[in-house]
User: Fold this.
Amino acid sequence: MAIAKGVSAALDLNTYNLAFLMLGMLLHWRPRSFLRAVSDSVPSTAGVLVQFPFYAGIVGMITGSAITKILADFFVSISTHDTLSVIVGVYSAILGLFIPSGGGKWVVEAPYVLAAANDHQVHLGWIVQVYNIAEALPNLVNPFWMLPILGVLRVRARELMGYSVLQLLIHTPIVLILCYVLAKTFAYVPPVIPP
Assistant:
């Protein structure tokens, strides 16, 4: 009975993605052949379809290691009450380039980001908003939002990327300055721990 529960618990979307990715690579025997076949079958979205399962692996490595405690201590050591918002914003934006999943990232990162906010007595709601705002910046260069447009217009992501990179360069300093300035408008409210 316990074995059946263990097997059914392992059969989730990530397991299926990994199985189909590995099966495809084994059937093509060479990575170049596999990538060429994916590009021929779905030319507009081939890069995204192949790379996103690897992002899930990165998240798994972060959650399965002791890095959470190390990162919480690191955030506290490099920041102050005034600079934590900007540091969390920069961190969220940089990590968003490598793991473009706001909700999935937040589940992993919330414990140490909020621990640092508590230590520096920064408004917790504001830190969550800073994280979300800055996490949206890399979406300008990660083409998730482009997928429907690419298919309908029959263009490739590289044809739109110049416009979105320009937007990233313009908006990043504005967002980080606003994170710093607006952080001063919120008073710290300690979290309520239920009895």
Notes: Residues 157-183 form the longest helix (27 residues). The mean pLDDT is 79. Residues 66-183 form one domain.
